[in-house]
Design brief:
The complex is a heterodimer. By secondary structure, chain A is mainly α. Chain A has helices at 13-22, 28-36, 39-83, 90-102, 115-146, 148-161, 170-177, 180-205, 209-218, 222-260, 265-274, 278-305. Chain A has twelve helices and no strands. By secondary structure, chain B is an alpha/beta fold. Classes of the chains: A mainly alpha, B alpha/beta.
C-alpha cells in the first residue's frame, strides 16, 4: 500500500482512507472535521512515516549483528589490555590512530613515511607481482585446461610447488634480483600464480559440453569459440582465482616486507615494533584487515557482474 | 532425382558403441532409416533407447562405429550448420542476448556473403518467426523456459538448415506452452518445407507432428522396431484430429508398440 500511494497523481482520496485507519476511531463529528481542513497534511504525513521506518528497520536488522560482533571484539581486546599493561587498549590505540591518520602522507626520508605511503607501496608491489602472475597464469590455465597432455605434464610440478610457502622463495628472489623490492614482488608473483592457473584450468575443463556442441554445430572459428564461448564461460572461475590470489598476496606481502625492509605496511609494522610503538602495530593490523576486506569485496562485486544464470 | 529426394538422409546399417569403464556398450545396432526431403520424422521410444544417440549421429556430433550416415548422398563428416540442432535444454549462451545468440549462427552461415544489415534483418526475422521480437535484447536468464526454447528454435531456423534436428525440444515445458510451440512449429515447417527429425517421448506430439513415426526398440542394442506412416492431411488442427478416428488409430498403434511389444523394463 505504502509503495503504491506516492505514485498516484491525486493523493487526496485514497491516502485519506489510510489516514483515517491510522487515526484512532473517532466520532462521526471528528471524522467530518478531518474530512474538511486537516486532511492534506495528514495524508502527506501518514504514508511517509512507515516508508522511512521500514528501510531503517531492515538496515538495523542487517547491521546490528555485525555491530555486536565488533563490540564483542572491542570488549575482549579491552579486557586483555587491562590484564596486560604492555598491550594498548582500544582507547589508547584510537588516540594513536588519530595522530597517525592526521598526516598519512608525510615523508621524512626513506625510512620514515606516513602510513598512506606505506599502504600504497605495499599495494603497488602486490599489483605488479599479481599482474605478472595473471599475465602468465591465466594463459597457462587455458593451456592446461584445453590440452590434456599439458595438464598431465604440469600437474605434478604444480602439485609439488604449490604447498611451498611463498616466503621460501624470497631468498631465491634476493639472489637473482640482488634487490629487496623485486624480490618481494617475485614472492607475490609465486604465491598468486597457483590459484590463477588452477582455477582457470578448472573453468576451461568445466565449460558445459552443451556450449561446445553449439560451437560444433555452428562450426564456429577457433577465435569465436574463445571469445564467445570459452572466455565468458571461464571468466567466473578466473575471477575466483584472482580473488584467492589477491587474498594470499595481501597476506604474503606483509611478511615479505618485514623481511626485506624499505617502504610498505609490513616494513612499517616491523619498524614500529623496533620503536616499541605497539599502538602502531595494532593500527597496522586494522589497516591491513580493512584493505584486505576492500580488495576481497571489490572482486566479489566484479565477479557478481559476470555471474550468469546458467539455467 | 526422385530416389535422391526420397533418400535425403540415409542411415545405413549403423552400429553405435561406446567404450565405458565396464566395457563396450552397444547403444544402437544395425539401424537403417531413409528420410525423404521435406519429411517430418518423429523418433520415439523408451528413455535410454538411443533416440538421442541416433539424432547426434545425424547431427554428426558423434560418428558411427560401423555403417554409414549420408546426407544427399554424401557422408556426414561431422557437425555442421546445414544440420541445425535444437537441443533438449535449449543451450543458449547465457552471456549473449537472444538477438546475439541467433546472430552468432546467422553470422557464421551467411556472414561471408551478406552485409551486416542483411544479417541483422535475418536475425530479427528469425526471432519474429517464433514471436519473440519483443524480447530480442533480453538475456536468456531473463525470459521463461518456453521463450528460451523458442530462441533455440529461432537460432536453428535462422541457419536455413537442410535438416532440422530437435532433441525433445518441448520436453521440459508445461502442456499449454508445449501445445502452443507445437502449433508454431507446424506452421513454420509448413512454410519452409524443412526436413525435420524430432526426438520425443510424447505419443500425441509424435502423431500430431510427424509424417512418419520411427519407433525404436529398447536398448541396449536398440534398433528400428517399427515405422508408422501418419497419413493425416495438413494443416493439422489439434482439436479436429482429436476427434479423428485415424488419428486415434495411429495413437493406439504407437501406444501398443511402446507398452505391449516394448514394455519397459520393470524398474527403469
Amino acid at each position: 500500500m505504502n509503495v503504491v500511494l506516492p505514485m498516484k497523481p491525486a493523493p487526496e482520496q485514497p491516502p485519506a482512507a489510510d489516514a483515517v485507519l491510522i487515526e484512532p476511531k473517532n466520532a462521526d463529528a471528528a471524522t467530518a472535521a478531518l474530512a474538511a481542513a486537516p486532511r492534506p497534511p495528514v495524508a502527506a504525513a501518514a504514508p511517509a512515516r512507515p516508508d522511512l521506518l521500514a528501510p531503517l528497520g531492515a538496515f538495523l536488522n542487517a547491521v546490528m549483528p555485525a555491530l555486536l560482533g565488533l563490540a564483542l571484539l572491542l570488549t575482549l581486546w579491552a579486557a586483555v589490555a587491562q590484564m596486560n599493561p604492555q598491550l594498548p587498549g582500544p582507547l589508547k590505540t584510537w588516540e594513536a590512530a588519530v595522530e597517525v591518520f592526521a598526516d598519512p602522507f608525510y615523508r621524512n626520508g626513506p625510512n620514515d613515511q606516513g602510513i598512506g605511503w606505506n599502504v600504497l607501496s605495499s599495494l603497488q608491489r602486490v599489483g605488479i607481482g599479481f599482474g605478472l602472475a595473471a599475465l602468465v597464469g591465466i594463459p597457462a590455465g587455458f593451456i592446461l585446461g584445453r590440452f590434456r597432455f599439458a595438464n598431465a605434464m604440469l600437474q605434478p610440478v604444480i602439485a609439488l610447488l604449490r604447498p611451498v610457502s611463498p616466503l621460501a622463495w624470497l631468498p631465491i628472489g634476493l639472489l637473482v634480483f640482488k634487490k629487496a623490492d623485486p624480490a618481494a614482488t617475485w614472492t607475490i608473483f609465486i604465491c598468486s600464480i597457483w590459484p590463477m592457473i588452477l582455477n582457470t584450468a578448472q573453468g576451461v575443463q568445466r565449460v558445459p559440453q552443451d556450449y561446445l556442441n553449439v560451437a560444433r554445430v555452428l562450426n564456429l572459428s577457433e577465435f569465436k569459440i574463445v571469445t564467445r564461448i570459452l572466455f565468458p564461460a571461464v571468466l567466473p572461475y578466473m575471477l575466483t582465482g584472482i580473488r584467492l590470489s589477491i587474498g594470499t598476496a595481501w597476506l604474503v606481502i606483509v611478511a615479505a616486507e618485514m623481511l626485506t625492509g624499505g617502504v610498505g605496511i609490513g616494513f612499517w609494522v616491523w619498524d614500529e615494533w623496533n620503536n616499541l610503538k605497539v599502538e602502531s602495530i595494532v593500527i597496522a593490523i586494522f589497516v591491513i584487515g580493512v584493505v584486505g576486506l576492500l580488495l576481497e569485496n571489490a572482486l566479489l562485486l566484479l565477479a557478481r557482474r559476470f555471474q550468469y544464470d546458467a539455467k | 532425382m526422385s530416389t535422391n529426394a526420397a533418400k535425403y538422409v540415409q542411415v545405413d546399417h549403423v552400429d553405435m558403441e561406446f567404450t565405458t569403464k565396464k566395457g563396450t556398450f552397444v547403444a544402437l545396432q544395425d539401424v537403417c532409416l531413409n528420410i525423404a526431403q521435406g519429411e517430418f520424422i518423429a523418433l520415439i521410444g523408451h528413455s535410454g533407447c538411443g533416440k538421442s544417440t541416433l539424432l547426434n549421429l545425424i547431427a554428426g556430433l558423434t560418428l558411427p562405429t560401423r555403417g554409414a550416415m549420408l546426407l544427399a548422398g554424401r557422408e556426414i563428416p561431422g557437425p555442421g550448420p546445414e544440420r541445425a540442432v535444437v537441443f533438449q535444454n535449449h543451450s543458449l549462451l547465457p552471456w549473449l542476448t537472444c538477438f546475439e545468440n541467433v546472430h552468432l549462427a546467422v553470422e557464421r552461415v551467411f556472414g561471408g556473403r551478406e552485409k551486416k544489415a542483411a544479417l541483422r534483418a535475418r536475425t530479427e526475422a528469425a526471432l519474429e518467426l517464433v514471436g519473440l521480437a519483443h524480447a530480442m535484447h533480453k538475456l536468456p536468464g531473463e525470459i521463461s523456459g518456453g521463450m528460451k526454447q523458442r530462441v533455440g528454435i529461432a537460432r536453428a531456423l535462422s541457419m536455413e538448415p537442410k535438416v532440422l534436428l530437435m532433441d525433445e525440444p518441448f520436453g521440459a515445458l508445461d502442456a499449454l506452452t508445449r501445445a502452443h510451440l507445437q502449433d508454431e512449429l507446424m506452421r513454420i515447417v509448413q512454410a519452409t518445407g524443412s526436413t525435420v527429425v524430432m526426438v520425443t517421448h510424447d505419443v500425441d506430439e509424435a502423431v500430431l507432428l510427424a509424417d512418419r513415426i520411427v519407433m525404436l526398440t529398447n536398448g541396449p542394442a536398440a534398433t528400428v522396431g517399427e515405422v508408422l506412416k501418419v497419413d493425416l492431411p495438413r494443416p493439422r488442427n489439434r482439436l479436429e484430429v482429436a476427434e479423428d478416428a485415424a488419428y486415434n488409430h495411429y495413437r493406439a498403434e504407437v501406444l501398443k508398440f511402446l507398452y505391449e511389444r516394448q514394455r519397459r523394463p520393470a524398474a527403469a
